[in-house]
Amino acid sequence: MYAFVVAIQPELNPRFLINMKAFVAVTLATLLAVVYGADVDVCHSSVLTACDGREGGEVACNSLHGGFKHAERDMQSYVNSQLATSYDYLLLSTHFNSYQKHRPGFEKLFKELSDKAWDNAVNLIKKITQRGGVTNLNEKHEIPSTISRGKQPSLEVDELHSLALALDSEKKLAGDAQRIHRRISRLDKEEHYDPEVSHFIEEKFLEEQASTIRKLSGYANDLAKLVSVPDPSLSVYLFDEYLQKQ
């Protein structure tokens, strides 16, 4: 009898286990359907339709979360602002690189500002994509650049006025970053709150722009004092040499 039980045990065990696994799987599926069936924003509840590109895919199976969607449009507008500002700085840089002006220090300053604004735009696009948004550079937002707002001033300006234009532009960019930060830091509206984007704006933009504003304001005030003489040509030349070494 003992031998008989040992002989048939190997045949019964696998079938029993298979049946048990099937029972557990069906039970779990039923429970999950009950739990998630009413929640259309959960990926699992619509996994068959949400993740294969059919209707509903943009609702559930994506990286959108937190309050990002409430700041997405402002962030895309901010991309446009950074790109337009980069272009304006590039024009200023080439203006001071001409044989008439020949100010290598000012050329270097505005080329660095142009590169910084371009890199900021790239980082913003990466962040928007990471958080599930889509950057559409063809979409029209508000007029982006301070230098280009309203009656566009000529970019063929003297050294002091170029610093003033750059300072105004950086202050506008800082204000735009503060508006995005304020929108996603509202603790009174949970759907707007997004600490990850808030930290990104603080670390990558607000701190850096505060430093740039301080530097440009110092340059503008120093140069304003240097040119307040009957013949400021030597003062401007020496100031340009100073900028080359920064």
UniProtKB/TrEMBL annotation:
Q: Which Pfam families match?
A: Ferritin
Q: Which GO terms describe its biological process?
A: intracellular iron ion homeostasis; iron ion transport
Domain spans labelled Ferritin-like diiron: 65-227
Gene Ontology MF terms: ferric iron binding; ferrous iron binding
Q: Which GO terms describe its cellular component?
A: cytoplasm
Q: Where does Fe cation bind?
A: E170, Q209
Q: What keywords would UniProt list here?
A: Iron, Iron storage, Metal-binding
Return the similarity comment: Belongs to the ferritin family.
Entry function: Stores iron in a soluble, non-toxic, readily available form. Important for iron homeostasis. Iron is taken up in the ferrous form and deposited as ferric hydroxides after oxidation.
Protein name according to UniProt:
Ferritin
Supply the source organism for this entry: Hermetia illucens (Black soldier fly)
